[in-house]
Design goal:
This is DUF3304 domain-containing protein. By secondary structure, the protein is mainly β. It is 13% helix and 37% strand.
Length: 182
């Protein structure tokens, strides 16, 4: 029993060390790091504002896999390392976001793509937060100091309260109507 506990603690320590080394690479710069000279690398995370009944099964930024966001309301998606961006970007810095939505009440998956500017909270490249909105709109925010949910975050407000129903676009299947009980 004691050996199992020690082995479990050792595996946890090994995993955390591996994770720290992996994520530590996201701050590396220059030719000796993960990004070419003149570029910096950053992590990607996502927040959805769609509502209930829809999620983002995967997304990409400039062709780099960004993770999944199963819930259509709030965070909880993956944080993925690393996307290379110019160390001192000329504005506007544009990125291409490609994402796949799925509707939980239907077997309906759709790909979407948009090229949008990166909004900078500070004058430096920080973590990138991808915000997915109804109407299949997307915004990208860079913040080195504050993340979504922090009152000082300059990007869109973090979704709170109960999730509203997703309102489908005219070319999407309508939400099923609930039968009234008699």
């Amino acid at each position: 029993m004691k050996n199992n506990h020690i082995r479990s603690l050792s595996l946890r320590w090994l995993f955390l060390t591996f994770l720290a080394v992996l994520l530590g690479g996201c701050v590396a710069r220059g030719v000796s790091g993960l990004a070419p000279e003149g570029q910096t690398v950053t992590s990607l995370s996502s927040v959805t504002h769609y509502g209930k009944g829809i999620g983002v099964s995967e997304f990409y930024v400039n062709g780099k896999w960004g993770g999944v966001q199963y819930n259509g309301w709030g965070g909880g998606g993956s944080t993925v390392c690393c996307l290379g961006l110019p160390e001192k970007p000329s504005l506007p810095l544009m990125v291409t976001v490609k994402w796949k939505t799925y509707r939980t009440n239907f077997k309906e998956e759709r790909w979407h793509e948009a090229t949008v500017p990166v909004h900078f909270s500070e004058n430096e490249v920080g973590y990138l937060y991808i915000h997915f909105f109804p109407g299949h709109r997307v915004e990208v925010w860079s913040s080195a100091k504050y993340g979504p949910g922090n009152p000082k975050y300059q990007g869109p407000a973090y979704p709170s309260g109960p999730a509203p129903d997703y309102v489908p676009l005219p070319d999407e299947k309508p939400q099923p109507t609930k039968k009234k009980s008699t």
